[in-house]
Amino acid sequence: MSMNILAIDSSFSYLSVCVQSHKKMLSNIKEEIPYDTDKRIIPVIHHSLENASLAIHDISLIVCGMGPGSFTGTRIALVVAKGFTAAQNIPIVGLSLCDAWAYEERTTHKICLTLIPGPAQRFFARLYQHGDPMCDFWEESLQEIKEKTNKYAFQKNYLLLGVDLINYASAFSNSHAILSEKTLAASLIPKGIKLFQQGSLLPDDASPIYIKHTSTYRKSCDKSKKF
User: Fold this and answer.
1) Contact 142/114 with Cβ under 8 angstroms?
2) Where are the domains of the chain?
């Protein structure tokens, strides 16, 4: 199926937008914008479409990252994507960046751990095998994530999937992790296409994935003054 696809993700400190046409990546932009996603997202989308020599009415499908991560950043991307959908009648699908990364590695026999930076030196993580989740999302420190993962992996090598993993490599130096650097919005497209083909379109009332904070987590945030 030949499609012009616009993919958007702003689940953490990066805004990522890419355009793919006929299975060829035409534009792929990643900007580090921790605080002004609302001001930058429309210009970045327009720039990405210009790079691809396409207009928004040429887009056949929008794929939007749903988190977990920055709830505000993800919500902004979702609102913009829904706006395009409503104005241009473009179908939209949504999925977690973690699910997208795991889907890309679905043919591996190794357990995959996805890692997304969160607030207060915490991280969102999830374990997968053959592209399927093995557990719910975690929101923990790196040390807690490594300890949990080792229980699942049983001393076997596992793939650590994420972005800028070099920043966290030391935390996993004594584990069985094999680092695998991933892309952002571009990674959403393969599974996004599958969801579209399955008819799994995003409902009108969809909202970003939200991980409910525990009382212990809230206390740690209060102590660090980072919420």
Assistant:
1) no
2) 4-96+184-209, 98-181
